[in-house]
Amino acid sequence: SRSPTTRRYARLIEMARPWLVAALLLCVASAHTARALDADAAVIDLDDGNWKDLVIENGREAWVVSFGADGCAPCAQMAPTFAKAAKHMGGIVNFGHVHVGDASIKLAQSLGLTKVPHVVGLPAHKTLNPYTKKSEKIAVEYRNSTASHKRIAEFAATLLPDDRVTRITDADALARARTDAGHLPVAVLVTAKETTGSLFKSLALRFRGRVAFAEVHVSDAPDVLASVPGLEADPATIEPPALLLFPPGGEGGDVERHGGEMNARSLAAYLESNAADAAPEDDAPEVFDARGGKVGPSSG
Fold first, then answer.
1. Mean pLDDT (the chain, rounded)
2. What are the pLDDT digits (tens) for 130-139?
3. Exposed / middle / buried, residue 252 (Cβ in 10 Å: 0-12, 13-18, 19+)
4. For 249, how many CA atoms within 13 A lie in the half-sphere containing its CB?
5. Burial class (CB in 10 A: 0-12, 13-18, 19+), 200
């Protein structure tokens, strides 16, 4: 027989069925939810079987996850908007969907789920519990409009770390960045933005420990890049955005310029072909204390 906790979540599934909606409309709403999510490969189906590997022990990607159930009309209404946000953030933040049912009861319990539809964000890192001394990913509840894909995308962007990209303003800062990178190549983005964009933040997270990341504003590029060997173009003529890849500081070789499209897929493929190797344990989530200080590797 089921435990009281399991029965509680089984009741939650049943409560998601609006009793004022006719049975036919419920079936239509449920079918619409499935179509809206399955038709968009950007939204990944999650359940008890893949939740831990894809989300909890994934230290290189952040997630936004929606929860829905059969017969939930608001869930069906939100699904196209959620899928649109996933397309907008494709390759930057992962988007997943959990159908609340027998295959997802454990993960629903772990998050204390009490309602559907429900949307949460999970960063790539874990937070140390000072009392149990164990680390866990802390889910952040989305509390804004589920009818706005832009709001959901903005929420997704907040899950990315801000401290993995070095801002460079002069040639000396570039030299220091290369020295600090040690055995890692350094990816430098020439940008017109005043702050680091979500795409570059996500790449810095995905390739942590394999590539060092920096950026230079286009107005500073002539001074920063003037003495860079092997740079084919005049620094003053480089139009942003442009990605330059420097070999590790202690090695010879000229700087390369990424010649492909400046999108998530193309940039990730280019960096993968040039990144340093990583040990399997490097893929685990980093652990921070409640104040944001790094503690160490995941402790479960």
1. 85
2. 888 889 999 9
3. exposed
4. 11
5. buried
Classify strands 286-288 and 140-141 as parallel, antiparallel or unpaired. Answer: unpaired
Four-residue CA torsion sign, 227, 232, 237, 242: negative
Q: Over the stretch 98-110, which tens digit does the pLDDT of each residue have?
A: 999 999 999 999 9
Residue 35 has pLDDT above 50, yes or no: no
Peptide bond connecting 123 to the previous residue in cis, omega within 30 degrees of 0: no
The pLDDT tens digits for 154-212 are 999 999 999 999 999 999 999 999 999 999 999 999 999 999 999 999 999 999 999 99
- The yes-or-no answer to whether 4-157 and 165-275 have a common fold is yes
Output the six-digit token pair for 185.
């190549």
User: Cβ distance 35 to 131 under 8 Å?
Assistant: no
pLDDT of residue 41: 58
Top-level class of domain 4-157: alpha beta
- The tokens describing 171, both together, are 């040639």
Residue 298 banded pLDDT, cuts 50, 70, 90: low
- Stretch 60-67: mean pLDDT: 97
Give helix 149-157 / helix 73-88 axis angle, nearest 10°.
60
CATH of 165-275, one of 3.40.30.10, 2.60.120.560, 3.30.465.10, 3.20.20.80: 3.40.30.10
What values do phi and psi take at 118, rounded to 5? -150, 140
CA distance 97 to 163: 29
Unique residue bearing structure tokens 């866990």: 136
All structural domains of the chain with their residue ranges: 4-157, 165-275
Nearest to 16 by CA among 71, 66, 77, 65: 71
Separation between Cα atoms, residue 153 and residue 282, nearest integer Å: 27
